[in-house]
């Protein structure tokens, strides 16, 4: 599996989204490598990102 971003220029937006989600759940991320995170911390960031994406999708379809 490739880690290549499919949309050019989207990486910055994805990084910003990740930092925002981490801030919301109280996880301290740094730019670059974050291998010091526990599985629980990493999972909470990913879970928050998914939660926000689902909320946006639900809001988008509710306004159509």
Question: How would you describe this structure to a colleague?
Answer:
By secondary structure, this protein is mostly helical. The chain contains two helices and no strands. Helix 1 (10-25) crosses helix 2 (39-62). The longest helix has 24 residues, at 39-62.
Distance linking N and C termini: 35 Å
Q: How does the overall form come out from the CA principal axes?
A: globular
Count the strands? 0
Count up the helices: 2
Mean residue pLDDT: 92
What fraction of residues sit in β-strands?
A: under 5%
Structural class: mainly alpha
Order of helices and strands: HH
- Which residue ranges are poorly predicted, with pLDDT under 50 across at least 5 consecutive positions? none
> Roughly how many Å is the radius of gyration?
13 Å
Helix content: 55-70%
Largest sheet descriptor: none
Which helices and strands, and how do they pair?
Layout: H1 10-25, H2 39-62
Helix pairs in contact: 1-2
Please outline what is shown here:
This protein is an all-alpha fold. The protein has helices at residues 10-25, 39-62.
Task: Give descriptors for this structure.
mainly alpha; 64 residues; globular
């Amino acid at each position: 599996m490739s880690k290549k971003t499919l949309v050019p220029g989207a990486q910055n937006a994805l990084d910003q989204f990740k930092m925002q989600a981490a801030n919301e759940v109280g996880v301290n991320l740094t730019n670059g490598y974050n291998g010091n995170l526990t599985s629980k911390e990493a999972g909470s960031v990913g879970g928050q990102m998914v939660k926000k994406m689902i909320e946006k999708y639900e809001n988008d379809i509710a306004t159509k």
